[in-house]
Amino acid sequence: MIATRFTCPALAAPLRRRYPSLLATLLLFAGVTPALAQHDAMEPIPVPSQPEAIDLRTGTLPGAATAESWHRQYERVFARNVTDATLTPFLPDPAMATGTAVIVAPGGGFRTLSMENEGWDVARALAAQGVAAFVLKYRLNQTPADMDGFAASMQAMFAQGAPRRPDPAETIAELEPQLADARAAFALVRARAEEWRVDPDRIGMLGFSAGAMLTLATTLAGEDARPAFIGNIYGPLSAVEVPADAPPLFIAIAADDGLFADSGFGLVESWRAAGRPVEFHFYEQGGHGFGMYQKPTTSTGWFDAFSRWMAMHGLMQRTADAGPVSVR
C-alpha cells in the first residue's frame, strides 16, 4: 500500500540535493501545487480535540504499541497510528437535509489519513448541499512514532517504485480491521438515521486512494454495510467480480496520477460488463491526492461532477418531497 504524503525537515533538504527526481515524483503523487509544495515539511501537532467524533467500538488495533499522532503538511492536517476508529458527523441544516448520507473515507496508504483535504473539507462541502456526511477515521497500520523515523519509512516505501497492480481479493483479505470499521460506520448511521434525518436506504460511501480501496472492499465484502452508491477518487482501477446488485459507481482520477492511472480501466469495464451504472472522469492533470485542493486543473471539478451525479440519481432531492428513491 502506498501513502501519498512525504517529507520532513530533516530529510527534505538532503532529498532535494541527492534525489531531486524522487522528491518531484513524491510531490506529483501528492497532487500538490507549487505553492503548497513550499509547505511540504511535516510539522508535528497535538492530537486535536474531536468532541463530535463517535467511537465505533471496533476495538483497539491488535498489537498496536504506538499512540495516535497528528501532523501538518501542505497546510492540512493528517492523522497517523490510529488505533481506535471513530466516525464524525457533519450534518446539514435540517431545512436543507435531503435524507442522503455519505461515509467519507480519507486516503493515506493505510499509514496516515488525510483528515482535512480528503475528510473534513469533503464532508463540509457535502453538508452544504444537504447531504449528511460522516468522516471515517479508520484504524491504520503502525508506523514509527518519531517523525524522522516515519519519513524514513515512507522514503523506503517509495524507493520500491510504483506499486504493483493491487489484487482485489488480496486487498480485501488485508483490510480486516478497516473493513470492520466501515461496517460499524454504516451500522451506526442506520441506527441513528431518524435522529440524523437520514434515509437508511440512501447511505453511500466516498473514498480517496486507500479510502477508495476500503470503499470497494466494503461494497464487495462488507456484508451488512450495503452502500447505496459509491465514489472511487484516484483509487485502484483493477478489474473485480461485480455482484448483480452492485451500487452505482462514480470514478475520478487524473491521467498523471503516479500510482493508479497506468494500470488500465478494469474496474470501469467490470461495472459495465455487469450492467451496473458507472460514471468515469479521467482528468488530464491533477496528480495523486488532489482532493479538495483548489488547483488550476480540471480535476478540481470532480466534486461538482460528483454532486451532479448524485442529483442525476435523485439523491439530492429531499426524501419527503420526492418519495422513496432507489439508486439500484
Keywords:
alpha/beta, Rossmann fold, 17% strand, disordered N terminus, disordered C terminus
Q: Could you explain how this protein is built, in words?
A:
There is one protein chain. The chain has 328 residues and is α/β, with parallel strands linked by helices. The protein has one domain (9-320): Rossmann fold. It is 34% helix and 17% strand. It is built from twelve helices and twelve strands. The strands form two sheets. The chain has an eight-stranded mixed sheet with strand order 2-5-8-6-9-10-11-12, sandwiched between helices. Helix 7 packs across helix 9 (210-221). The two termini are 31 Å apart. The relative contact order is 0.15. Residues 1-36 and 321-328 have low confidence and may be disordered.
Topology at a glance:
Elements: H1 9-18, H2 20-30, H3 34-37, E1 43-45, E2 54-55, E3 69-73, E4 76-80, E5 86-90, E6 101-105, E7 112-113, H4 116-127, E8 132-137, H5 147-158, H6 168-174, H7 176-191, H8 193-196, E9 203-208, H9 210-221, E10 230-233, E11 249-254, H10 266-273, E12 278-283, H11 302-312, H12 319-322
Parallel strand pairs: 6-8, 6-9, 9-10, 10-11, 11-12
Antiparallel strand pairs: 1-3, 2-5, 3-4, 4-7, 5-8
InterPro entries: AB_hydrolase_fold, Dienelactn_hydro, GDXG_lipolytic_enzyme
Domain Dienelactone hydrolase: 148-296
GO molecular function, one term: hydrolase activity
